[in-house]
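Supplementary material to the annual report.
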Amino acid sequence: MATIPLDRTAKQIVLTVQDYSLFVWQAMRNLFRPPVYWTDFLQQSDIIGVGSTSIVLLSGFFTGGVLALQSAATLAQFGANSLTGRFVSLTMIRELGPVLTGVMVSGRNASSMASELGSMVVTEQIDAMRALGVDPMRKLVTPRLYSCITMLFFLVIVADAFGIMGGGFVTIFLNHQNGTEYFSTAWEALRWPDVVQGLVKPLLSGFIIASIGCFYGMRTSGGTEGVGRSTIQAVVTSSVLIIFVDFIVTHLLLTLLGTG
Amino acid sequence: MSGAPMSAPEALSASPVVDVCNVTLSFDGPPVLKDINFSVASGETRILLGPAGVGKSVLLKVVNGLIRPDQGSVLLFGEDIFSIPEERLFALRARTGMVFQEGALFDSLTVRDNVGYQLLQNRSITDDEVDTRVHEALSFVGLAETFSMYPASLSGGMKRRVAIARALINNPELILYDSPTGGLDPVTSTNIIELIMKERDVHATPSIMVTHRLQDAFMLCTHRFDAGTNSMVQLPTGQADPHTTFLMLEEGKLIFDGSLHDLVHSDDAFVREFIE
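Predicted assembly:
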């Protein structure tokens, strides 16, 4: 008897993964077949990219600051204060910049995509769009997907830059260390594999945020309560997936690029 | 009311605009629609009656390809909509107009952008032309003053009229009305029915109207729109519009297909109970 719910749950998971795969495939290929809604792409880029700049900038700055505070005390025990810049820049660019930005943007945009599309589903606006001869996948999902991938790439660069600046601020004004040394070690420590690693991850995080947000939004059912449920599922799933994919990609890239 | 046809129906086009054949549909349970068959001829108005929850709205969505049935086929303008690719189905849907139960207006867009939505997707139509046609459509439903407003600031009746304007702006070859008067007061309901009648009698657009309100259905059948006075007038007692006919659903089954005269003289117990 206990196997029946387990069996059902397993089937449900497989079906959801199958639906998600088909959903993503359809959304991605739409970019290469007209009509492409470029205006919506720009509008979404503004909402996702420009709209998220302030939270990304602040979280990046303070994360860099905290890294400098924490590392300075430990490094001082080994007389390695001069390595603070190297530590902050590598950690920000390789790990914390992409992951934190992904999670922050997920909290802001995966939720808004799921709730906006979910509301449109329960109020029949999606059906109305289809009835008017407009494909909601092309009009709503594809622009969100590609603009989120593009914007997250740039947001991570902003977060990395402000993280290093935050670390520099703490190093100079709170730890009273040499700023030139901080920034020069931060710069010299970087190698191309580190930068590649840091810039591949946001592409995947952007993909996860938009595809999961739109997927849960478009399959909303059960009225306004369903919209709330979709929003929670979108944020939770995308946040966990970002961290999981980060782990896989880090392992893969460290093996491939040999920066381990 | 005998509901006898006003005159012999004019010969309707040989090929129906909509042809629903053996449609059956279920959602994880007992069938919602069971072996439905009916057609809509050119210039014909079909009123789909039945109590709430018998599958009327679902059937309307099946006709437009918004829901795929488990069995059966739907020919829309002669094409089997469930055997063609999605791209062609979108093009086919663009030739129809649909008015949803609650209007389903896009709440983040103005009335102008809602009504002109289809036109705005077509890059060959200029903004000025869109504005002109939106003004015409809004004037048709008597809401020209709402051009720049958002749906949130409209009343329920105004939203339905804007939804009708949106459905009509592209001169559709078929209109589907899903409970256009549901939840509205009698005066507003009459205004909506008058608009539907106007579209029927002025443009002779074939349509399917879902409703559970008998008074609306009978009014549509026993009145005609007078373009001269820009209002509806009652047909002589005992006469009914020959191109307006009825369908009735009971628990997902089509139990009646005929004229007003046939409806009021039906022996079916469910039909009798419903109309009495």
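The first helix of chain B runs from residue 56 to 63.
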